[in-house]
Amino acid sequence: MNILKGLVFAPLIALAPSALSEGVPTSVVPTTYTSAETITMDLTINAIEISKANHNTISSARYFEQAINAAAGMQPPHPGLATIGDQYLSFLRETPESSCECGHRIEETIITLTDGLEQAGADPYEAFSAYYRGAQALLRHSHDLPNGYDHNRLADIALDMSSDLFPEGSIQRVEAQLGMASVLSESSLKRKKAKSRALAENALEALDENFPSNEQTTKRQLAHHLMGMYYLSENRLSRAEGSFSGLLEVEGSSKQDNRYVLAAHANLVNIYSRRGETELATEHCIAISERVPFSETEEQYPIYRPARIYPQRLLREQVEGSVVVEFTIDATGQTSELNIIESELHIGSSSYENTRFTRLIEEASLEEISEYRYAPMVVNGVPTAVEAVRTRVVYSLAKSTGRSADRSSTYTRIRN
To answer: Which Pfam family is one of those matched by this entry (predicted)?
Structure first.
């Protein structure tokens, strides 16, 4: 069931459309380079291969950047620039997030690459593909970016180019809109999130107008997903419900278990639980169980859980702690038979004992877990209860906002 961890709010990014990165002609430019330039290029490319073979992603990123700078800086740009750029973008896509420590240099490298391609007289599709894939890579490695960095600039350029390159309603335009909508949906800026929703809406309209309902189903699902996530972030639950329900109504979705379908069910559990519509939430809990096998050997993650309650007295005294609770996940995915197994308090690294404070975090933990919703275990097609499930509720000052919030908020709730 680990597939459910982070499913509801995890960013779901459209893959770069193959039509944009394959079969594009690479420009051929007459070469009149000095031996020093040629040696530099050969040594840099060799260094890339060595560092990749040694799984040194930090060095690989640096050498790729050096190779692109060198190739683009030649006059005319080196004819292998497009190939090096393609390999660099593939490297960024395949490299684990943040492992190359290069996020803050991606934008500059992509601009150097595209400037070089333009000087070499490359096809405009090559530059578009570089911006498009670069925007996705920048999102993938965004943990390396400094605070306040606008990681959407490459996405904005790619969108402007797609309007000139691809006809309205074409599948290439739809792919570009959905890909960049995925990038923009991760922005911290409200206007960028709104633009993401608008792009997803436009893409869905184009799909409905130009393609049969049984075609391009994954793209339709992604469009609904992006719209639903936007409305959910704005706490517009009815609109979000409509988008996620619309996703499940896309032809073929009832028989699928891809990440968009699973996320739609999980988000609907979230919405209905927040509104207290228990029976509707149960339907989608069971739908997830039917698609994802329940494992008694893995830790179970709730599909829905309310914001954590942090007792005000503990906050004032800077007390942290944790509570281990054992419970049953019943056939509807709700929790029952809750029992405290152990509790602990501490200030800094020192243990702390206070009967009243212990009771406060135990009560808060029981209240929180009583609202959890899980995907129940299904045996021979029948939802079945699972006993003796345990979880630890952690009260950490580092994770607390120290401010009031309602149950629908992602902030910690404060209780006096």
So the answer is: TonB_C
Compute and round to an integer the Cα radius of gyration of the chain: 26
Is domain 2-291 annotated with CATH 3.30.430.20? Answer: no
Q: In this structure, which amino acid lies at residue 200?
A: A
Query: pLDDT tens across 169-228, in order?
Result: 899 999 999 999 988 888 777 888 888 999 999 999 999 999 998 889 999 999 999 999
| Cα end-to-end span (Å), the chain | 36
Q: Which helix (H) or strand (E) holds 34?
A: none
Q: Where does residue 402 fall: left (phi above 0), alpha (psi -120 to 50 degrees), or beta otherwise? A: left
What is the CB neighbour count within 10 angstroms for residue 295? 11
Is residue 370 helix, strand or coil? helix
CA distance 283 to 199: 31
Q: Please report, for the chain, the start and end positions of each structural domain, with discontinuous segments joined by +.
A: 2-291, 309-415
pLDDT tens-digit series, residues 63-72:
889 889 988 9
pTM value?
A: 0.75
Of residues 169, 167, 165, 147, the one with CA closest to residue 157: 165
* Fold entry, domain 309-415: TolA/TonB C-terminal domain (3.30.2420)
DSSP string, 235-304: T-HHHHHHHHHHHHHSTTGGG--SHHHHHHHHHHHHHHHHTT-HHHHHHHHHHHHHHS---TTS----SB
Q: Do residues 338 and 326 touch, judged by C-beta distance below 8 A? A: yes
